[in-house]
Write a sequence for this structure.
């Protein structure tokens, strides 16, 4: 269930990248000089970072990590 | 001349970092140490070097130039989409490739493909296509170095000499430092990039008297107001561009970098902070590129705007050659340099110039990746390592670095830059079309070597076809595209002012979709690898 929710979040973010609603307007100008289309995409980058944090926290492939550590514990602990 | 001196100090620093890293590894002539830094990079160096490896001259010079001509759309088109797709692909693919590299000792993607699909020569075909698509990057890096040093020194350093210096510096630290030297240099360069964006924004903003007035002036001008919106680019083109960042994980130098992490945990920071690093570099560059249109007292910028006006008004009636000449004059890749020359004090222009050099010199990882691929996928695979030993393999890698750098420098002196800029455009689409190889190898038991061969051959043919098409059919003037092939009134293939459109999409979209379909269809009808091999990957 958790993984399905994360997939939905990633797909939703991808769709939100296509912000056709701000296509032909610069208004409102955020802080008086940043066109809204640019500001939206900057916020999108911050949202992408948050989604990556969610993926790392809830869907990290720790089984791969465990497998490596179990396979070669001495080498891993030496580093 | 002061900015050029600061840049030379920067180049000396870079050289020192590379040689210092070499000393640390002295005495150990193991291939894994030279080519992968013994898979031992820590979290800080891994994040910054992986990010720096993916940031080429385009991140600073090209992004501001593209924004100068096309407006704010540049950020959504190239930066924010990469901020989603690249860390996602590192999360899904990079971590798995790292784990397989640790388990089975892979040092290149082709080694993994050969093992996963039980193939030999098909791996060599993949190597050839990857290498051919990678070489233009190295050439353009040297060209960019020559051009930038020439511009920063006010013409005192000639292009050939600037290119030679950059080629020598990059070759030296890659030669001596291998992956460890390259990673540390990339880390240093990425810190410079990040500082560059913020400092350039403040200095130029103060110099222009604040951005509020500049933005309002652009908005009130009918010629420039569209640059504050995205109306110059179609939504389909914008959507198509989200396929381009798929190329990042398929680039051999990025995938090889994924193998250098000491622990898988180190991917966590990289995945989370990647979008923010892109934001920190691209947002100031795109914004400054747009604002450059407001600058009225720099003759070179005025000349570009005039050429843009003539192209828009008379482009349709011009001969294709005259139109192409005008397009070169419109290109704004040097606007950020011009803004710095106009607004930054001498000493700061030097520091910022060093930041630009850092971006231009990103060809180091491509040179090292090509050397790693050659020594592992060709030299070692065809018996060289077995016959001559590992020390000779590392020396072969070093000799390859010298040869490829000299070759790239010789071409950089002779060929026009635009040819390689085009080649890089094709390379992005080509590597994106190769990305189904990785997805199939890691996530689909049913994929086969014949599916992989079909994807590789299709990618090579598609890249060649697009290149021939764009060379044969001249680009039209800004405005409607030239329809090349239509069915029942629907445009199938058309030549646009900026490239090619297939059903309104960029060629990368059908290239990736056909690649994925070929992998599925061909794999379905051909023999799968042995159960024992599959168990190594899917147990």
């Amino acid at each position: 269930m958790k993984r399905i929710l994360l997939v939905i979040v990633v797909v939703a973010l991808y769709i939100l990248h296509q912000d056709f609603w701000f296509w032909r307007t610069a208004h409102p100008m955020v802080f008086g000089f940043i066109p809204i289309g640019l500001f939206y995409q900057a916020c999108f980058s911050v949202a992408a970072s948050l989604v990556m944090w969610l993926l790392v926290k809830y869907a990290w492939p720790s089984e791969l990590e465990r497998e490596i550590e179990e396979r070669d514990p001495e080498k891993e602990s030496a580093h | 001349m002061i900015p050029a001196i600061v840049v030379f100090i920067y180049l000396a620093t870079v050289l020192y970092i590379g040689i210092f890293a070499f000393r640390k590894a002295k005495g150990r002539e193991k291939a894994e140490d030279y080519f992968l830094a013994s898979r031992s990079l820590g979290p800080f160096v891994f994040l910054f070097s992986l990010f720096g490896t993916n940031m080429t001259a385009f991140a600073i010079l090209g992004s501001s130039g593209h924004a100068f001509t096309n407006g704010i759309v540049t950020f959504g088109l190239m930066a924010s989409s990469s901020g989603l797709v690249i860390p996602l692909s590192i999360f899904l693919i990079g971590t798995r490739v790292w784990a397989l590299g640790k388990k089975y000792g892979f040092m290149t993607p082709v080694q993994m493909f050969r093992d996963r699909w039980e193939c030999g020569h098909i791996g060599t075909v993949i190597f050839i296509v990857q290498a051919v698509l990678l070489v233009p990057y190295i050439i353009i890096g040297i060209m960019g170095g020559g051009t930038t040093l020439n511009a920063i020194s006010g013409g005192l350093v000639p292009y050939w000499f600037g290119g030679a210096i950059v080629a020598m510096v990059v070759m030296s630290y890659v030669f001596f430092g291998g992956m460890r030297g390259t990673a540390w240099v990339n880390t240093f360069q990425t810190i410079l990039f990040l500082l560059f964006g913020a400092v350039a924004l403040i200095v130029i903003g103060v110099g222009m008297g604040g951005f509020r007035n500049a933005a309002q002036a652009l908005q009130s001008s009918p010629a420039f107001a569209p640059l504050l919106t995205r109306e110059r680019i179609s939504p389909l083109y914008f959507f198509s561009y989200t396929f381009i960042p798929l190329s990042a994980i398929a680039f051999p130098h990025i995938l090889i970098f994924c193998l250098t992490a000491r622990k898988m945990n180190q991917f966590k920071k990289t995945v989370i902070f990647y979008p923010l690093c892109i934001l920190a570099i691209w947002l100031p560059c795109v914004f400054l590129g747009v604002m450059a249109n407001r600058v009225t007292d720099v003759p070179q910028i005025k000349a570009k705007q005039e050429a843009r006006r003539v192209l828009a008004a008379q482009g349709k009636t011009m001969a294709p050659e005259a139109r192409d000449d005008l397009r070169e004059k419109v290109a704004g890749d040097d606007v950020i340099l011009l803004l710095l020359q106009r607004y930054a004090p001498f000493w700061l222009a030097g520091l910022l110039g060093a930041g630009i050099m850092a971006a231009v010199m990103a060809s180091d990882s491509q040179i090292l990746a090509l050397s790693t691929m050659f020594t592992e996928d060709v030299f070692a695979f065809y018996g060289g390592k077995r016959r001559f030993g590992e020390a000779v393999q590392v020396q072969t890698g070093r000799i390859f670095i010298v040869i490829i750098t000299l070759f790239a420098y010789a071409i950089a002196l002779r060929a026009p830059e635009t040819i390689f800029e085009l080649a890089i455009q094709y390379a992005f689409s080509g590597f994106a079309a190769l990305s189904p190889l990785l997805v199939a190898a890691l996530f689909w038991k049913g994929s086969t070597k014949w599916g992989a061969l079909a994807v590789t051959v299709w990618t090579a043919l598609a890249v060649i076809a697009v290149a021939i098409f764009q060379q044969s059919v001249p680009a039209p003037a800004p405005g409607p595209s030239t329809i090349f092939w239509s069915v029942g009134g629907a445009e199938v293939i058309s030549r646009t002012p900026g490239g090619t459109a297939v059903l309104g999409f960029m060629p990368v979209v059908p290239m990736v979709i056909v690649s994925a379909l070929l992998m599925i269809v061909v794999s379905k009808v051909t023999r799968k690898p042995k159960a024992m091999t599959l168990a190594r990957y899917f147990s």
